[in-house]
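User: I'm curious whether this sequence folds into something compact or stays loose and floppy. Could you predict its structure so I can see for myself?
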Amino acid sequence: MEYRHETLTSTAIELPVTQSWKAITQAFCPGLTAICLTGFALPMYAQQMGVGSPQSALVFTPGIITTLAGNGASGHTGDGGAATSAEVTNGLRGIAADAAGDVFFVDDTNATVRVVYEGGATAAQLITAENPSVTSPVVGNIYDVAGTEGSSGTPANGTLGTSGKIKPGAGLSLDAAGDVYFNDSGTNKVWVIYAGGAGTTGSNLIALETGVTSPVLGDLYAIAGNSSTSGYAGNGVLATSIGVEFHGINDMKFDAGGNMYIVDQGNCAIREVSASNGYLTTIVGTGTCGV
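Assistant: Here's the prediction. I'll summarize afterward.
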């Protein structure tokens, strides 16, 4: 099957479709276990998925663009209801899908991280933790998992995701256990929304970087950065040590060993947070941009 680039509209998430997320993975990224999406104001990304992942509850028609979220109007309404009836804004940024097909995205304008639920167990427990009135998420509905609608601010470690005020940037990623990562442009840090698993990439990084060995489901934890000032500093120490600086974090991804790779765009560098000791290292670039 030929891969054809499609574009998200400014107020709806629309996807070029095959029969399932797994089929998209195989069609768009032959030889790779990744799902690749592009869109308006969204960078191309690759989110790791297992080859044997469950099929998404979404039903697609080959060759037809299907709207996943948004009704064409810009806003922030419809949480807890059908994603295609909800309003999303033209500030859509990072987007990632888990192995069950649950789709997370950054609604920059409204300072939130939202999810279109497609039946995954990990996403379900995260949704119920972040939205106490929701006891059983509905497939195809949209929910907030971090941020306070329309009110940006400074989050704090150990705060429930939907109780915290955030200023999310372009990056959003998931690890294999379903922990949700985003960069916050207000604090110049990478944060994780802990999804509840034991011995996961998220729980390991939280323990290394914050000292919290029993994180709480749904809470936010900073795992990289410790200065709101843009700069290039901190190699060779814990990624959350005082004085660690980034300059325009654009994305973050993980390898199979749980190491995190951060695109430090303003410094023209790629920086790694080690899964073994939590230390920050530059692996590409010198911190000075050039041609």
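Summary: DSSP finds three helices and 17 strands in the chain. The radius of gyration is 18 Å.
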